[in-house]
Inverse folding.
């Protein structure tokens, strides 16, 4: 029993391992490697959950899927009042919006860009709309990052953890000069001792 993270290399589960390190919760990592040709998760993950994706978090035998749910549960159970804004405040509402925005909105143009990019010339008619939506979503994130370097309030929250992934992808794809606040946000995360401990346990992560 206890906590097990089913971790896929170069994936959204990096942010879950990072959060566990921040929270100081004991956990175990079960590592899975992407197929070198297809980049997909190996079939073993389907034995853990029918979707076969990562992250998956096993807490005392209950497997939780969806990184937003995982981050929320971890912050609620182990945050000791930190990592989530106080209930009933406007910050709590903002936090809820951004927890959903990360996977529900920001990742859509990022994934479209990835998949349609593989079509080469055949995907050209879709590219202007994808570029416009990428600029809109990432530009929105850039515009709401607070002077403190956080998305909600002036301290770390689950929303920062969730938004770390789209921000990392944006920076990794060369968007740093366009979105300097997102680049600084990512750099501040990667400089954290907890993130570095996570990186040491998971191995290489997108060139880091
Ligand atoms: N919305 C889900 C997305 C999960 C997801 O698509 N994970 C990717 C890794 S970033 C994955 O497992 N991809 C491998 C595959 O689809 O085979 C979440 O946030 O947990």
């Amino acid at each position: 029993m206890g906590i097990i993270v089913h971790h896929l290399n170069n994936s959204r589960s990096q942010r879950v391992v990072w959060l566990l390190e921040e929270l100081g919760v004991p956990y175990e990592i079960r590592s899975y490697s992407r197929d070198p040709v297809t980049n997909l998760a190996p079939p073993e993950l389907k034995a853990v959950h029918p979707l076969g994706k990562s992250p998956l978090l096993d807490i005392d035998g209950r497997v939780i899927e969806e990184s937003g749910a995982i981050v929320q549960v971890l912050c609620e159970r182990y945050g000791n009042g930190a990592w989530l804004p106080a209930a009933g405040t406007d910050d709590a509402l903002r936090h809820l919006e951004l927890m959903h925005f990360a996977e529900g909105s920001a990742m859509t143009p990022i994934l479209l860009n990835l998949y349609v990019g593989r079509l080469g010339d055949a995907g050209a008619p879709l590219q202007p709309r994808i570029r416009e939506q990428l600029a809109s979503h990432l530009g929105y994130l850039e515009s709401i990052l607070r002077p403190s370097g956080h998305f909600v309030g002036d301290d770390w929250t689950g929303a920062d953890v969730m938004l770390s992934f789209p921000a990392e992808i944006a920076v990794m794809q060369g968007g740093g000069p366009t979105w300097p606040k997102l680049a600084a946000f990512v750099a501040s995360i990667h400089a954290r001792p907890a993130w570095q401990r996570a990186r040491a346990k998971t191995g290489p992560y997108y060139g880091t």
